[in-house]
Amino acid sequence: MASYNTSQFKKGLKVLLDNAPYLMVETEFMKPVKGQAVYRTKLKNLLRGNVLDRTYRSGDKKEAADVSDSSLQYLYNDSRAWFFMDPESFEQFQLDQEQLDGVERWLKDGSMVEVVFWNGQPISVRPPNHVVLEVTY
Q: Model's pTM, two decimal places?
């Protein structure tokens, strides 16, 4: 599997840490007067959403996470699971309430959303940038 050297660290990089995928939210290079250069990073867990602060020395390596994004169509929900379909292969995926994390408010039947996959399993959903909704109450 691919790995990244500290010189390749940048915002948006997806790495594997403690057997979980993380997204680099922030990176900062620091060169102290004495000693070795360090990279300070903020990493967001893509499964749970918590953020960690980690410091790495120059020359350290981190393993790349096998994370991919796919555009899927929202089909329907049955109060326990939300169902999405790949418009090209017609394969269906389901996600539960914890994985949606409040995104379900912005989903309309037939809308296209970005679903994040890790090891072939959907882990989170990004809603469309613009949604037209009607206020009923």
A: 0.75
